């Protein structure tokens, strides 16, 4: 079901302030940034091995990332696992008693389909399924 660790999402107040840390100090390859309006976030990705680090900055006060930052401050927000078939992954998770945070897959960065599992069902880890567009 899960094929790889796609990325680790880190909530930040300002992507612009964090890019130099990850790119220049830590030496990670900067892959670019984009706004994901459906999630009310701006994201930036850095390559680390076969995976990525995703920085998430809220673009609206009602954004889930804004709420996370208000409650927890900056830090790890989620772990994203790649899946070959997001519908099958969602079905298997639901059959296993996991609660999904949306009724259907959502549009994510890079044109991927995404879906989140409630962290109370996964040891306080917000788990994201991610499927590449066209898969």
TrEMBL record:
GO terms for molecular function: metal ion binding; methylmalonyl-CoA epimerase activity. Belongs to the methylmalonyl-CoA epimerase family. The keyword Disulfide bond does not apply. This is Methylmalonyl-CoA epimerase. The gene is mce. Transmembrane segments: none annotated. One of its GO terms (biological process) is L-methylmalonyl-CoA metabolic process. Keywords: Isomerase, Metal-binding. Pfam families: Glyoxalase_4 (PF13669). Residues 4-132 form the VOC domain. Its EC number is 5.1.99.1. It is an enzyme of class 5 (isomerase).
């Amino acid at each position: 079901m899960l094929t790889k660790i796609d990325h680790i999402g880190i909530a930040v107040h300002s992507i612009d302030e964090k890019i130099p840390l990850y790119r220049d100090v830590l030496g990670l390859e900067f892959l670019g940034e984009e706004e994901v309006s459906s999630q009310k976030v701006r994201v930036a990705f850095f390559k680390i091995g076969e995976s990525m680090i995703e920085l998430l900055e809220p673009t609206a006060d009602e954004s889930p990332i804004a709420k996370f930052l208000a409650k927890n401050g900056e830090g790890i927000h989620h772990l994203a696992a790649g899946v070959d078939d997001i519908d099958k992954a969602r079905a298997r998770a639901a059959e296993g008693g996991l609660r999904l945070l949306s009724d259907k897959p959502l549009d994510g960065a890079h044109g991927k389909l995404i879906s989140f599992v409630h962290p109370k069902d996964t040891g306080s880890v917000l788990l994201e399924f991610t499927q590449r567009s066209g898969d």
